[in-house]
Amino acid sequence: MAKRFVERARRFQVRRKGELRLDERRFNGLIQxxxxxxxxxxxxxxxxxxxxxxxxxxLAAGLPFEGKLKVRxxxxxxFGAEIVEADAQSRRNWQQFLEKHYPGQWELPxxxxxx
Length: 115
Known about the structure:
Elements: E1 5-9, E2 12-22, E3 25-34, E4 38-43, E5 52-60, E6 63-75, E7 78-86, H1 88-101, E8 109-113
Antiparallel strand pairs: 1-8, 2-3, 2-5, 3-4, 4-7, 5-6, 6-7
């Protein structure tokens, strides 16, 4: 039987501490990887799929990012989220970080096996 592959945005391993906010609650998260459109976070705070959470993270010195995330999947303290809102400067900082640290790679798709 032929294996099926699903394309997704290429992910890059990073380790950044971020501040997350849900309503008036603030909690920390450790960003494990990022892509052009989202990120994967480890946190002690349980979230639910569909929740929208604000994040603030320093991608690199002088490159802050602030925006709204939508939780796409959650499992045992880890969640993947899509960036759904960010101001123009934060979006530029995100792209600049990817271009500087992963030149020529960040726009390429990543293949993964669909189980």
